[in-house]
Amino acid sequence: MRVAPRCFIMNTETSRAGVTSDQLEVLLRVIEEIPELVMVTTRDGTIEYVNRAFEEVSGYSRAEIVGRRPNVLKSGEHDDAMYKQLWATVLQGEVYRGALINRRKDSRLYCENKTIVPIRDEQSAIAGFIAIGTDVTERVAQEGALRQSERSLGLLAGAFPGIAYSMSVSDRTEIELLNDNVFEMTGFSADELMQAGEFPMCSLMSEVDRSRRSGEILDAAKSQRPFRVEYAVQHRSGTQRHFLECGRLIRNPNAPVPQVYGVILDVSDSRKLEESLRESEEALSGLSARILDTQEFERQRVARELHDGVGQMLTSIKMHIENASTLISDHRTGNGLEVLAKVVSMVPQIMDEVRRISMHLRPSILDDLGIIATINWFCRNFAEASQGIRIQRDILLEENEVHESHKIVIYRVLQEAMNNVAKHSKADLVRVRLSRLEDHIELAVEDNGCGFDVDRSLVHRRGRQGFGLSSMEERLKAIGGYLSVKSTKQIGTIVRAILPYSPRDKA
Predict the structure, then answer these.
(1) β-pair type (429-437, 390-396)
(2) 313 falls in which pLDDT band (50, 70, 90)?
(3) Number of domains the chain is built from
(4) Which CATH number covers residue 154?
(5) Which domain holds residue 155?
(6) 98-133 pLDDT, tens per residue?
(7) What is d(CA 449, CA 421) in angstroms, rounded to the nearest whole number?
(8) Using 50, 70 and 90 to split pLDDT, how confident is the model at 2?
C-alpha cells in the first residue's frame, strides 16, 4: 500500500488536536482507500497529495500531478468568474461546495461534486486546502439522457395529432396531458376537464361509453394487454365527435400505483367516411337491383312491341302470302298478284317499326352522325310528341371535342332529363345547352316549370327511389363526371351534367 507523504497537514490542525503519528498513518491509509477523490494543496494551490481514487479518475499519476496546480484539470466548461468565486470563498476560510467539470489526462471530461475545506496552522492561519470530490459523471450522463428523453417526448407529444397522456390509477385520478390538443379536440381546456377528478374525457361521454371504457381497461389490465376503445364525446360547440383511445396499463415496481399510458385520436372524419361508404354501397346495391329490374322491364317492353307490332305484321304477311299462293295455284294469278302487292306495301311498315324500336334502344344517328345531330333529332321528336313545350337549343362546341364514349352518356342524361320535364315539370319552355368550359364539357337542361324539393329527392334516392337521377349520376361517375341539380319551386329546375374534356384526338 502506498502511504501519503507527511505534508504540512501533520503540523496544523491534526497536531493541535493531539493526533499521534501512528493515528495519522492510519488516517492516511483510510484516505488512500476511500472512493472519493482527495487532493491536498498548499495555500497558493500547489498540489502536495492526491489519493488513489483521484489517480484512477483523472488519469494522472501522483508523480505527474504533485507539484502542479489544479488548473491542469481545467476543462474550459466554466468561466473565469466561477473560479474567482471559488478561490474567494476558500481564502476567506469558508467551505466551498459545488459541481465541477474537469478534464482527464486523455482529454475526456468528468464531473464531480466538490467540497473544498481550508486547513489552518497553529496560529489559525490558512495553510492549505483539502478537496474531496465524488465522481458523478455517470449520474450526470443519465440525468442528461433523461432530460433529452423528456425533451424528445415533449416534442413528440407536441407534434402528435391527438392527445398523449399518462395517468395514475388510484382513488383519485391524476393525469398529465403531454400536449395541448385537448382544447382543439373538445373545446375545453385540460384544467376545466380535470376539475372533476376523473379521466378528462369521462365528463363528455355518455354513461354507456364511460362504463364500456372502464370495463375495457380493466379487462386489458387483467390480461396484461393493450386496450383499444372508441367512444363519442360532446364537443363544447354541441357537436358530437368520435374518439379512438389506445393505451396500456403498466405496473412500475417503483411507483405506488399503476400508470396508464395512452393516446387519443379524433376519428370523426373517418367515421363519416365509413358511413358514406356504407351508404354508397347500399345505394349501389339498390341501383344494381333497379338496373336489373329496368333491364328486365326493357326486355319485356321490346318483346311486347315485337310481338304486338312486328310479330302481328309478319303473321299478317304470312297469311297474305299463303292466300296469294293458293290463288295462283288455282290459276287466279291476277288476284294472287293483288294480294302480293299488299304484302309489299306492308314491308315498309315493318321496317319503320323495327327502326323505331332500335332507335329507342340506341339511336343509329348517334353512331352515324354524332352527338350534335342526335341532340337536334331528339329535340325535334320531343317537341312533336310534347305539345305545348318549346325547346331552345344552344350547341357551343364541335363534334370532335366530345369523346366517343361520352356521347352515349350525354344522350342518356338528356333523354332522362327531358322525360322528367315531360312527366313532372309542367313547363312550357326548355333550354338545352351543350358547351365546353375550360377543362370540362357541360350539358345543361333548364326548364321554367314548377320545380321540386331536391333534398327530399335525395332522401328518396337513398331509399332506392328516383331511379332517373341515380341513373344519370352513376353514368357520369363512371366517366369521371358528376351531376348537379338545382330547383326552385314555381321557378324551374336546372340539371347540369359535367363531363371531363377528352376530345377524340387526345383520347
Answers:
(1) parallel
(2) confident
(3) 4
(4) 3.30.450.20
(5) 143-266
(6) 999 999 999 999 999 999 999 998 888 999 999 999
(7) 8
(8) very low
Cα first-last separation, the chain: 96
Whole-number Å distance between alpha carbons of 41 and 48: 5
The CA-atom distances, in angstroms, between 406 and each of 244, 294, 417, 471, 475 are 44, 22, 17, 15, 10
CA distances from 148 to 74, 145, 154 (A): 26, 5, 10
> How confident is the model over 399-426, as a mean pLDDT?
89
Parallel, antiparallel or unpaired: strands 492-500 and 440-447: antiparallel
318 and 417, same structural domain?
A: no
Largest interatomic CA distance in the chain: 171
**CB under 8 A, 24+ apart: contacts of 436-440:** 436/396, 436/397, 436/401, 436/501, 438/501, 439/500, 439/501, 440/481, 440/498, 440/499, 440/500, 440/501
Which three cell numbers, joined as nine digits, stand for 115? 467540497
pLDDT tens digits for 335-386? 888 888 888 888 888 887 777 676 667 777 888 889 999 999 889 988 888 8
Residues 68 and 47: their CA atoms lie apart, in Å, by 6
> 202-206, 243-247, 305-309: which has the minimum mean pLDDT?
305-309
Instruction: Please state the φ and ψ torsions of residue 172, each to the nearest 5 degrees.
Output: -125, 120
Of 361, 379, 411, the residue that ends a domain is 361
Please report, for the chain, how many H helices and E strands are present, in that order. 17, 15
Helix ranges restricted to H, 125-238? 137-159, 181-186, 190-194, 207-223
For residue 2, tell me if it sits in a domain: no
Same domain, yes or no, for 405 and 338? Answer: no
Rg of the chain in Å (alpha carbons): 49
- Over residues 21-75, the pLDDT tens digits come to 777 788 888 889 899 999 999 999 999 999 999 999 999 999 999 999 999 999 9
Q: How many CB atoms lie within 10 A of CB 204?
A: 21
- Looking at the structure, do residues 120 and 170 belong to the same domain, yes or no? no
Domain match, 372 and 486 both:
yes
**Across 370-455, where does the E strand assignment appear?**
390-396, 429-437, 440-447
Same domain for 38 and 115, yes or no, is yes
Does some domain include residue 279? yes
Say whether pLDDT at 153 is over 90.
no
Cell of 448: 321554367
> Which of 244, 266, 288 is the last residue before a domain boundary?
266
The predicted pLDDT at position 304 comes to 75
The per-residue DSSP string of 355-372 comes to HHHHHHHS-HHHHHT-HH
Question: Do residue 254 and residue 301 come from a single domain?
Answer: no
Phi, psi of 270 (to 5 degrees): -65, -35
Tens of pLDDT along 271-309? 888 887 887 777 777 767 776 676 677 777 777 777 777
- Same domain? For 385 and 462 the reply is yes
